[in-house]
Write a structure and sequence with these properties.
two-stranded antiparallel ribbon, mainly alpha, single chain, 3 helices, about 5% strand
Length: about 70
Amino acid sequence: MYHPTEGGVYQSPAGVRGAFAGEIATRLHYRSLSHLSKQFKAVTGYSPSEYRKLQIMNRLPLDQVS
């Protein structure tokens, strides 16, 4: 599940960043990947795979990291 933070922004629990959706579903005790995917899309507006692609596209190249 996603936990609200200040300002109403949702954040995933520690230890799931970078994990595959199936691993996350298991770690968070979802009965199915489908349920996690539907809930994720309801909260973020993106499917887990769409969200992952956006994160990859928005990364800075190493030479631009301070």
